[in-house]
Amino acid sequence: MSPNLWYVLLIGVLFAAGVALLLERSLTRVVMGVVLLGNGANLLILTTGRAGGAPIVGTTPQDQMSDPLPHAMILTAIVITFGMTAFLLAMAYRSWYLTGHDEVQDDVEDRRIMRQAEQDRDRSEVGEDDTPDSEVAAAGAAAVIPTPRDPREHS
Amino acid sequence: MLVLLAAHALAALFAPWAVRQWGRSALYGLAVVPAGTLGWALTQFDQIRTGAVVESHPWVPELGLGLSFRLTTLPWLMVLLVSGVGTLVLIYSARYFHAEEAGLGRFAATFLAFAGAMLGLVVSDDLLLLYVFWELTTVFSYLLIGHDPARQTSRRAALQALLVTTLGGLAMLVGLIMLGQHAGSYRLSEVLAAAPPAAPYLTVALVLVLIGALSKSAIFPFSFWLPAAMAAPTPVSAYLHAAAMVKAGVFLMAMLSPAFAADSPWRAVVLTTGVVTMLLGGAAALRQHDLKLLLAYGTVSQLGLLTVALGAGTRAAALAGAAMLLAHALFKAALFLVVGIIDRATGTRDVRELSGLGRRMPVVCGLAVLAAASMAGLPPTLGFVAKEGVFAAFAAGGTVDRLVLAGLVTGSVLTVAYTLRFLWGAFGTRAGHPATAGERPGPLLVAPALVLAAVGLIAGAGAPVVDRLLSGYVSAFPETGADQHLALWHGPTVALALSGLALVAGLGLAWVISRRPSLTRGGLPVTGEDVYQWCRRWLDRLAVVLTAATQRGSLPFYLGTTLLVLVVFGGGVLLWGRLFPTTGPQSLAMTVPQLIVGAVAGGAAVFAARVQRRMTAAILVGVCGYAIAALFILHGAPDLALTQFLVETVSIVLFVLVLRRLPARFSERPARRTRRWRIAVGVAVGLVMSGLAYAAVAGRAAIPISVDFPELAFADGGGRNVVNVTLVDMRAWDTLGEISVLVVAGTGVASLIFRRSQAFTRRRGSRPVRGQRDRGWPWLMAGDSPEARRQSIMLQVVARLVFHPIVLFSLYLLFSGHNAPGGGFTGGLVAGLALTLRYLAGGRQELNAAAPADAGVVLGTGLLFAAGTGVAAMVLGGQVLQSALLDLQLPAFGEVHLVTSVFFDIGVYLIVIGLVLDILRSLGAEVDRQQEAGLPSRARMRVKEPV
């Protein structure tokens, strides 16, 4: 099959815009990114099938029909994207209700572990010994570090 | 043998209950199981002498893994030890533990389970089965050492023993598999009989197996876990750390050495580590003040001796080693039990505090002296016979053997010295020390130790009998001509002289040390314990560093990484694989409508990514969606276009419902800094996806699978609309999965919005309160509510009027979908739009009036319909989700052509309606209610509070 370059270009544009939105912090933008990505993916599936008349027996001669299999797949994808949009938007609303904004936060626990790794490195650079009781270190690096105040938590 | 193993397992399960029922005396009853095993083993004696007891049951034939057991001389000896000592220690435990001891039931269960695992280990003839039992003993020993989980030392020691022996066990597993593959069989007996040819491969396998065996038997450099494991209750130490578990490694070496001792690394590894362990352990024992630790280091030392004797691979050494195995189990278990008695009676095991116990407990002292004589190698005990046998075996060899012999004699000097230290420390009377107070032990506590010590003495006297018992094992080694036998008196030999030398030197050493204790200070600069702790610290740090490096906790970071992998690998393959055919036709031929619609879609997407107002972005995304729908039409896909139009419409409503509460603009912070990076990733992904689309389409050469779909749809599916038949028939499984996702999404939306479970009842909706009974239902039911007064009355009336026609149209789409554009999805979306219209016009009262149903029930009913259609087809004898064509003659309708898959489509229809209803009830009605109730976001409430 010969690719239609116009479609190829459009798919690229949709994916680029979708990804740019997907990498944002605002959940609303992430949802929109997912929708745009979905449109791009649907178009990608569509172009792999032949264009033609509506795939309805008796209306279009069989050799002029467009390929029905991509249609069935895309139809499923459209509806799933809709369900996902609804769910993510509900999450955005809930996030707004709880925190006053809809931004995706960094995981606090993960950041604590990063801080622990930095401390470990600093300590070994100074040449200090490790914590005397290795069991404490093993019990979970994160657990022993006091919870820092997250500057974003109260924004 | 399987019966015995099952008996142990059953007894272990039954033990906690028994202990709850009868207290600590239940242990007497439980001792019947190992005692029975001992009795059974004794009856097998004749068969062992003439051959082997074999038993085999299939287990996993695909892996060649069977429950195959084989009892030959050495396993038989181990069975005697495991069951005999096990019985005695259980009897001892019944009086050792206090009646109110916590966790006694668990102890009894674990102890019996351990005994069973140990039994399985020594009798199994399959290498993999042996490994399974091997690891089981490790796990149970972990539980037994950690008997008192409240003490940190106990937990640490248990974990240390577990980690060290499991590490060795894993190495051993690899070695066993290599060995099994090399020999072509996992049967231990066949591997030994075949004695595979030497090869570097075999060398690696043997070293790995030896690592497992040495770590299990606490041989240097793995010896550090055993002294730490003394945190266990003393009966556990007597059983696991004297008689049973630590012998497992030595036992495996003894089983393998007839076939492999001649191979290159074996003797070097075994002799070196054995001698080093014996010397280090003996020296360390001299430094101890705790009687139990003294015995533990003594055990380490003796295990070194056993390793040397049983791993050497000569008949004489093996015979003496097997005798030593028996002797050590007898005297060391007895001595541990003695320590337990002392500890129990006086509350201490420290030699600096004990004094005058020899007079207070003459019987205990006597039996301890007897067992200690065996340990030191004094005639006429079995310990003497065995040790002299070992000396004799190495005295006859070459230079290497002589060197080993020197090490062994030195080790024996240390043994004599620490034996004296033990006896003197436990029972001696120190000048200026008051006699230690303590109750006299009861006869049931002393008897087991007494039996063990006595057997050691009797076996020494009956050395020729022991010799004959062990001949079956010894004959497996290659014949050397110079045969040796166990006896108390061989005449004036080198070995006798060395025994005498060791005794005298040992006495002298003990005397010197008692004068100058400072001589024993010192030790290795780096111990195994240090290495272990260093490894653990290093692992902890590595884990933290690795986690910190990979788990950044930032969603954009994760997504960016994933997408970059796609760009690098996906794009790399596209470029490198030259997937772009440069020749051939390339169509740029676009119709003008396609060009326009495509430009609109692309432009809307780009602007949607740039704008700062939420609502504008939502509308642009919608525009993009509508443009795509138009492209679907131009491509020849009316079903898709219809669905996309409807979905976009509902989506816009959905966005509006949510965005009305959120701030109008996206927040700027901290987006600016990373903006370029995001755009770069986006453009890169776009380029790769464009390339992928080009390559995928240009690369298509085969005939599409769907070429027969139209015929199949018409003939088998009974419909003209190929897409719809594909959805409800040919690919119905896909659709079933998809509508399940919709159910989950709908339920998820509702549970995110209804904040409390009571609020969830509002998801059901309720009929509006009836006005006046005689007037019946008012036509505009919500007309009176304050909420409805804000709405346009005109819109309400129009919504009322068109509602029923739209629902009727949706039903038409549902039922005609099989032959014309439409179907369950589009029908459901249209009905959902009708509901949306009612809600938008009249608020939640109107919504409830239009759909007085629980959204969850609608979703469930739909799923039931869809899945029920599939199941019904199966019940009626077809495949799941197969459809049938029915031509019915109905009275009013005339001839009706019915396809069963229409019921599936009805399910789809209901689920889509349920999803839309769920969205309207939660994001619409419930959010309205929260807004009316004046509930701001919780965050804003927090700001108002005084801090």
Structure commentary:
The complex is a heterodimer of chains A (155) and B (947). Chain A has helices at 5-22, 27-48, 68-99, 108-126, 134-138, 141-144. Chain A is mainly alpha-helical. Chain A has 2 domains: 5-99, Helix Hairpins (Orthogonal Bundle), CATH 1.10.287; 108-147. In chain A, helix 1 (5-22) packs antiparallel against helix 2 and helix 2 packs antiparallel against helix 3. The longest helix of chain A is centred in the middle third of the chain and has 32 residues, at 68-99. Chain A is elongated. The model of chain A is unreliable at 128-155 (pLDDT under 50). With 947 residues, chain B is an all-alpha fold. Chain B is 71% helix and 3% strand. Chain B contains 38 helices and 4 strands. In chain B, strands 1-2 form a two-stranded antiparallel sheet. In chain B, strands 3-4 form a two-stranded antiparallel ribbon. In chain B, 50% of the residues are buried. The interface between A and B is large, with 109 and 130 residues.
Gyration radius from CA atoms of chain A, angstroms:
26 Å
Oligomer: heterodimer
Mean pLDDT of chain A: 78
CATH architecture identity of the largest domain in chain A: Orthogonal Bundle
Q: What shape does the CA trace of chain B take?
A: elongated
Q: Biggest β-sheet of chain B, characterized?
A: 2 strands, antiparallel
- Count of strand segments of chain A: 0
- End-to-end span of chain B in angstroms? 73 Å
How would you sum up the global shape of chain A? elongated
Taken as a percent bin, the fraction of beta residues of chain B is: under 5%
What class, by secondary structure content of chain B? Answer: mainly alpha
CATH first level of the largest domain in chain A = Mainly Alpha
Largest sheet of chain A: none
The total count of strands of chain B amounts to 4
Structurally, how many domains make up the residues of chain A?
A: 2
Mean pLDDT rating of chain B: 86
Low-confidence segments of chain B, given as residue ranges, are 770-776, 942-947
